[in-house]
Design brief:
This protein is about 45% helix and about 25% strand. The protein contains 11 helices and 10 strands. β4 and β5 form a beta hairpin. α3 crosses α5 and α10 crosses α11. It is globular and about 55 Å long. The C terminus is likely disordered.
Length: about 270
């Protein structure tokens, strides 16, 4: 598979504390890649580095072979990188349709004065963006709420609204920070189905999530962080049985007990 995103020896410190420490991993195009680890492991900081919200201290980030570390957020969005946040960020007083249309701003080409004067080129772009926004809403199941105030949507609907807004920018890579947080089991199952459909449309997904059942069934590969460092990378099955991962989540004693039990079971076979 072709590498879409390559993070190489990425590091970020805050007042001498390493939030991300020499982390490297690759995200293959067309896949769902999970980024997991205990609280404080550095997952959201790594998302911020990839999206451009904070600058790298050291290392490189390549997107489709291009070094994007020097680029600002809007330039990365223009290349095809979109994201959602752990805490929902929407303009509550905008309509659902307006919220999604805002996600297409990086693709608009009409000069500002065309928009200010309402010239034909600007109006044509506005019609195109509105049509694409409605298509994105249909995709996530919110087309019937297009004229609803965004702040009046239920929590799970707001999560889907954020995904629709991200899709409106036509991303190659969509970063999802805890998309299933706060959802009930039914909503989580629906979200998993939606994200599989997003991936089938050719969008590569990189997601942070604490729901292990959700991420283990959805992701092709996982990268595991602990205290800012990468401690494992592989398939869900490989990560699930990795002693360093078990220790990070459950502690040293629990990891030792599980290793001893596995040894006994191997001896019986």
């Amino acid at each position: 598979m072709t590498a879409l995103l390559e993070v190489s020896r990425a590091s970020k410190q805050y007042r001498g504390l390493a939030a991300v420490d020499d982390v490297s991993f690759t995200v293959e195009a067309g896949r769902v890649h999970g980024l997991i680890g205990p609280n404080g492991a550095g997952k959201t900081t790594l998302f911020n580095l990839i999206s451009g919200l904070v600058p790298l201290d050291e290392g490189n980030i390549l997107f489709e072979g291009r070094d994007i570390a020097p680029l600002p957020i809007h330039a990365r969005a223009g290349l095809g990188i979109a994201r959602t946040f752990q805490n929902i960020r929407i303009f509550e007083d905008m309509t659902v349709l307006e919220t999604v249309a805002a996600g297409a701003h990086a693709r608009l080409s009409a000069p500002f004065w065309h928009c200010l004067l309402g010239l034909p080129r600007s109006r044509a772009e506005e019609r195109r963006v509105a049509a694409e926004a409605l298509e994105a809403l249909e995709f996530v199941g919110l087309a019937d709420r297009a004229q609803t105030r965004a702040g009046d949507l239920a929590y799970g609907e707001q999560r889907r609204l954020e995904i629709a807004r991200g899709l409106a920018s036509r991303p190659r890579l969509l970063l999802l920070d805890e998309p299933a947080a706060g959802m009930n089991p039914h909503e989580t199952a629906d979200l998993a189905c939606l994200l599989r459909r997003v991936c089938e449309r050719g969008v590569t997904l990189l997601l942070v999530e604490h729901d292990m059942g959700f991420i283990m069934t959805l992701c092709c590969r996982l990268t595991v962080l602990n205290f800012g460092r990468r401690i494992a990378c592989g398939t869900p099955q490989e990560v699930r049985t990795n002693p360093a991962v078990i220790e990070a989540y459950l502690g040293t004693k629990a990891a030792a007990r599980l290793a001893a039990r596995a040894g006994r079971e191997e001896g019986w076979q």
